[in-house]
Design goal:
This protein is α/β, with parallel strands linked by helices. It is about 40% helix and about 15% strand. The radius of gyration is 20 Å and the shape is globular.
Length: about 325
């Protein structure tokens, strides 16, 4: 299978080139990004001629910190959580540890990195342990108690715990940003694009002790966030009504997706309502059969039995997936 589809989701241009159709023909379930994105109640005025306003950046960071339940002094906006992670890896200068089934950038971000299967057997040396919570792609959620135990180990050995909470907005109690403090070796990464469905804005946050944020500030310079991201981020994080309603809606849509997958005999994994990971011996064949019907899912290099499905936007999209899965089963 082409690496274009196993490296990242959202590769519609590659899908059109290989399987035909135009982007508007496709149902893209490959990303785990909320397909029903936040929209401002009134059009936002964005001055593209002016430099991004430092006061607007400060206001965004205060609003986001209140939402994350952390100190504004420990919260810094970055131009996307992915590049924030890469800069953190360079700044810490430690070997990275990550779980084998995880976001591909975890391994790529560190100059030295290796997978670790058993979190109860961490090395007695300084490392940067990077965990997705919820994890991508299997949706596993580690408890606060487990994370704090891992943090204790890392601190005793001069290392760091980095928790990537790119998908944590789906549940109010999944985040541990409140545990970040000066002197603690805990860093939390947050992504704006997943839950709010606006990945193109490239907005993320790093919640970390002051010395880490100082290093990041030197890397990103005076204008780390563009003007539109400042405006949209400020509005979205303050919109508690939309956030509450979207959490409920995503749970309902994920609950509706599971039986559709299970009717085909797929076993499903994950607690994150933005996606479900399916296991099947013929995941590659199923990916191809769905792609022939202009439905894009997410396969994984080295895991030929896995296929991730983003949550469909509405009943129409879910029915289209259900019909396509039935066609694939009959052809198989």
């Amino acid at each position: 299978m082409s690496g274009a589809f196993t490296h990242h989701g959202g590769r519609l241009a590659d899908a059109c080139a290989r399987f035909g159709g135009t982007p508007s023909d496709w149902l893209d379930l490959s990303t785990g990004i909320n397909p029903d994105s936040w929209q401002p109640p009134e059009p936002l005025r964005v001055n593209w001629q002016a430099l991004p306003d430092p006061a607007a950046l400060g206001k965004l960071e205060h609003t986001a910190a209140r939402y994350f339940e952390c100190s504004p002094a420990l919260c810094a906006a970055v131009p996307g959580s992915e590049i924030g992670l890469r800069q953190l890896a360079r700044l810490l200068g430690l070997p990275g540890l990550y779980q084998p089934l995880a976001y591909g950038t975890y391994a790529a971000a560190f100059g030295r990195a290796e997978p670790i299967n058993d979190l109860s057997r961490l090395p007695s040396s300084a490392t940067a342990l990077l965990l997705g919570n919820p994890n991508n792609p299997d949706g596993r959620v580690l408890s606060r108690e487990t994370l704090l135990s891992l943090l204790n180990h890392q601190e005793r050995h001069g290392g760091w715990l980095i928790v990537d909470e790119a998908f944590a907005d789906c549940k109010a109690d999944w985040g541990i940003a409140a545990e970040v403090a000066p002197g603690r070796r805990l860093i939390v990464i947050r992504s704006f694009g997943k839950f709010f469905g606006l990945a193109g804005l490239r907005l993320g946050f790093v919640i970390a002790p002051p010395e880490v944020l100082t290093g990041l500030s030197r890397s990103f310079g005076d204008w780390p966030i563009h003007t539109a991201a400042l405006a949209y981020g400020q509005g979205a994080y303050a919109d508690s009504t939309w956030i509450t309603a979207t959490r409920r809606s995503l749970e309902c849509r994920a609950a509706a997706l599971e039986p559709v997958l299970q009717r085909l005999g797929l076993s499903t994994l994950g607690a994150c309502p933005l996606f479900r990971l399916a296991k099947t011996p013929n995941a590659g064949d199923l990916f191809g059969a769905l792609a022939q019907q202009q439905i894009l899912t997410r396969p994984f290099s080295g895991h030929p039995e896995l296929l991730r499905f983003g949550v469909p936007r509405d009943d129409v999209a879910l029915e289209r997936l259900d019909a396509a899965l039935g066609n694939a089963c009959r052809r198989g």
